[in-house]
Amino acid sequence: MSTTDTQAPAADQPEAAEEKPNFMRLFGRYLTEANSVMVTIYSLLLAFLIGAILLIVSDEYVRSTYTYFFARPQDALTASWYLVRDSYIALFEGAILNLNMLDRFAAGNAEFGDLLRPLSETLTYATPLIFTGLAVGLAFRAGLFNIGAQGQMIFGMLGALIIGFGLSLPAVIHLPLAIIAGAIAGAAFGAVPGLLKATTGAHEVISSIMLNNIAALFLVWAIGTDFLHSETKTDLITKPVDETAVMPKLLSGLSESLRVNWALPLGILAAVFTWWLLSRSTFGFRIRAVGFNEHASATAGMRIGSTYTTTMAVAGGLAGLAGAALSLGVGSAGLTTNTALEYGFDGITVALLGRANPGGIVAAALLFGALKAGALSAQPDVPVDISTLLQAIIVLFIAAPALVKAILHLRTPRGGLVTLEAKGW
């Protein structure tokens, strides 16, 4: 009996695999998402856009061209464009590279050191911000708001100054000792709000604000004492530190006018140390655990009070290093009440922009240093307040990522919006 072979039913073909998104699609999706990186970038762009609008509004000539906008709109648009372009170019030239100086250098009419002067000023202004930004950022990771970096920096300045002029030692001993003294003075002052929080529950913001005022007034009094006041000048300035305690300049071989000194690499080392402390040490794990959930950390046996005190002490030590950098660097000829400027308070904005990450803090400090150097160099063509204005707008958007998300209609990232928070409010 013949049989006919029956053809086996064809195996079900696997469903067509979904097409994998290519790189450009993934990149486009990333650009339209309110993740921490894109929120930071968009915050910068929005800040410069709003800054451009305010530049236009504040310029009398440009405003006058808008009175006849509908008759000759090109006048207003051209004037606005040139104002914004020239202002931001002036900021760039004052902070990074002066294009006119570059032409002179190419023609052989300028030294290489002259070409580096804007960058040197940026790095000089950025150096204290690295330390104070790290001081604020480290406390943030423990859920603390270290608003007292200004006072800690002032005490660091005084500690380094006293050792800087009060001892006669070889440079190899004198300079490190003065730096350590600044760090210890800042750490001691920084530990106070941490200790008060641990023992009495006093919020570190309130106590550190009061300590900032105490430090500022103490600085005014201390400079006027016979112990610290200059012996050769009548105005309110301290004695200079000895040459053996002065921070050497990094680029003195090119030009003595280049002020950036060895405090900059010290700041980079401080950032590396902070990263190691938070990411690789047991104490850093405790800081992050307490910052994430203090109640769970207490249940796990961690001592919350000692963590607060120690964290604020380390943060104060970092801010004290900023003071030491000022006393032994740009202020080595003598400190005044204006030497500290607002570096401690600006460290808050640096920490926010850097997302309390050591690498991000260094980058944010460089940006704010560039804004400061550029605004001062661009006088009188650019309002000096433009730097502060841009910093304030950047911080506004960084602190409120939901605002950036709403303005640009960004998608919510998978993990939700990331914000920095301090406990206790």
Automatic annotation (TrEMBL):
Segments crossing the lipid bilayer: 34-57, 123-142, 154-173, 179-198, 205-224, 260-278, 312-335, 389-408
Protein name: ABC transporter permease
Membrane-protein topology: Multi-pass membrane protein
Keywords: Cell membrane, Membrane, Transmembrane, Transmembrane helix
CDD domains linked: TM_PBP1_transp_TpRbsC_like
Main location: membrane
A Pfam family of this chain: BPD_transp_2
Organism: Glycomyces niveus
InterPro entries: ABC_transp_permease
Protein localization: Cell membrane
UniProt KW Transmembrane helix keyword: yes
